[in-house]
Amino acid sequence: MRKLVLTFILSFVGVFSFAQIEGKWKTIDDETKQAKSIVEIYKKGDQYYGKVSQLLIKPANPNCVDCKDDRKNKPILGMEIIRGLKKDGDEFTGGTITDPKTGKTYKCTIKKDGDNLNVRGYLGFSLLGRTQTWHKVN
Per the database record, which ranges form the DUF2147 domain (predicted)? Predict the structure, then answer.
């Protein structure tokens, strides 16, 4: 009986912890290496989205003046910067990520690594991009 209960508990925990990206994540500024913002990733239907829930460094302009879409001149705080990711094995792909500082939108892939997310933004091919590591916020 003990083995059955232990197996059930481990299976239950494994199902809910595997490649879970929902939650709050701390972003790090590439230039200063300082914590920049908190992004909350959530699920709508079968897709994942992320919005800026807290700014840790005040930007020069609190709005995305260089955005080209519906986010143009909208506040960065509360902005949906990740859109339309879908789970594909142990990765989340097929969506986009927008850099509110430059207003540029990139294709996006996210892969979980323990309490970190490897967030890759790229143009065209994944080789033409860069990866940031975001840290889980407890």
Answer: 23-136
pTM above 0.70, yes or no: yes
**Side chain identity, residue 116:** N
CATH of domain 21-136: 2.40.128.520
C-alpha dist (Å) from residue 79 to 3, 28, 49, 88: 47, 17, 11, 25
Decide if 123 contacts 129 (C-beta within 8 A): yes
What confidence tens digit (pLDDT) does each residue in 62-71 have? 999 999 999 9
User: Rounded to whole angstroms, how far apart are CA atoms 10 and 61?
Assistant: 47
